[in-house]
Amino acid sequence: MASSSDIIHFLLLSLSLFSVSCLSASQSPNTKPHPFILPIKKDPSTNLFYTSLGIGTPRKNFNLAIDLSGENLWYNCDTNYNSSSYIPIACGSKQCPDVACIGCNGPFKPGCTNNTCPGTAFNSLAKFIFSAGLGEDILFISQNKVSGLLSSCIDVDGFPSFTGDESPLNGLPKNTNGIIGLSRSNFSLPIQLALKNKVPPKFSLCLPSSNKQGFTNLLVGSVSGDPFKELSKFVQTTPLIVNPVSTGSVSVKGVPSDEYFIDVKAIKIDGNDLNLKPSLLSIDKKGNGGTKISTLIPFTELQSSVYKTFIRDFLKKASDRKLKRVASVAPFEACFDSTSIENSVPRIDLELQGGVHWTIHERNLMVNVKKNVACLAFVDGGTEPKMSFVKASIVIGGHQLEDNLLVFDLASSKLSFSSSLLAHNTSCS
Ligand SMILES: *[C@@H]1O[C@H](CO)[C@@H](O)[C@H](O)[C@H]1NC(C)=O
Ligand SMILES: *[C@@H]1O[C@H](CO)[C@@H](O)[C@H](O)[C@H]1NC(C)=O
Ligand SMILES: *[C@@H]1O[C@H](CO)[C@@H](O)[C@H](O)[C@H]1NC(C)=O
Ligand SMILES: *[C@@H]1O[C@H](CO)[C@@H](O)[C@H](O)[C@H]1NC(C)=O
């Protein structure tokens, strides 16, 4: 459950969300849709992923953590940051979805402006929900210079209380200074880019394993000759499900979730279905249950009852296969002598809507935690929601997504996925 201090922040911000209506969809006449390809790197200490893009005048490069569930792009416009092309969005303007208004005692700079529409600086790993200023500035995305997109900026240094684990940046890779959100929200970068370029929103994501580089293509649109054509023969498709209940930090009646859910019908270990209550795999009236995809957790989290069944069945199959179990290494439970597991790890498949299977490759299943010890890379997600009022039963995390090409097509609400590219002797790098 959210703590009482979280609730106070929920209330403060409850006015400011979920009524996004007018984004400027102005289009420069001569630009054809083209891909916006951003590099992705993995942070070895948090096992999270980030990208890099430029903002403002003079251009400053920011590393931003990648959050599939994130509603917008927000960055730390710290004390030394004073972009001359920054335009705060005025309260009550067409672009401002909110009735609230923020101000600042000055001196003027991004993150300290008067009569400014609030935006959010949401980080599901932080302890609180932070309000930032909604603004517009030039973004440098791969070779493209893009203006007219909305983002939020917050001066983290400007608030002495934002230190340590109280910071809006808590839990993110040390070298990052904000979040790039890729959710269905109208403020997310892929959606804003698609609207601006008048193409259907569609983006791909390929997370690298280790320190090799992956990529994200924020806007595929109708581009021909995209770099994924040759991989398309491996790709399977399943519907993206909309959870009708908001799963964010603020619960607003009748507002659906911005996050990406898929319909996992069964989990198979070596071909046998896990015996789970069907209600856990579907989304109930209150928005609980179901399976979502997240890039802001390193390892897949299973709600406790799913987790217990999963570990028990996995250990049984592992013992049938003569894997040598060793002492657990937190947060993992099922650990093995890695010299005993070569190519004999039990096979895990997610059976998805549309009759397709997502086979989790051995490299996505196990994680090497120390010399000769590999653990099943799934963790107990508990029973209570974090920074939200609802809880998914399965949250597929970064390790399980690595070296999988994922294409999110929001117009047709479909997810295409490759399963592991390693099985095809290629990778995200
Ligand atoms: C997002 O933008 C679209 C197109 O402009 C609009 O139809 C839709 O209502 C907006 N969604 C929200 C939640 O405001
Ligand atoms: C930031 O730059 C503006 C001019 O673009 C200037 O008016 C303002 O004083 C500067 N703020 C700070 C804190 O240096
Ligand atoms: C905002 O308005 C207040 C009150 O008028 C003023 O004292 C302050 O300097 C202004 N801040 C900025 C950044 O202009
Ligand atoms: C991948 O490479 C290995 C070794 O080079 C080879 O044995 C295997 O057949 C290849 N697999 C595919 C799908 O091309």
TrEMBL record:
Ranges of residues in domain Peptidase A1: 49-418
Keyword annotations from UniProtKB, A to Z: Secreted, Signal
Keyword match Signal: yes
Span of the signal peptide: 1-22
Predominant place of localization: secreted
Cellular component GO terms, alphabetical: extracellular region
Subcellular location field: Secreted, Extracellular space
One of the record's GO molecular function terms: aspartic-type endopeptidase activity
UniProt keyword annotation of Ubl conjugation present: no
GO biological process: proteolysis
Family of this protein: Belongs to the peptidase A1 family.
Protein name (database record): Peptidase A1 domain-containing protein
Organism annotation: Trifolium subterraneum
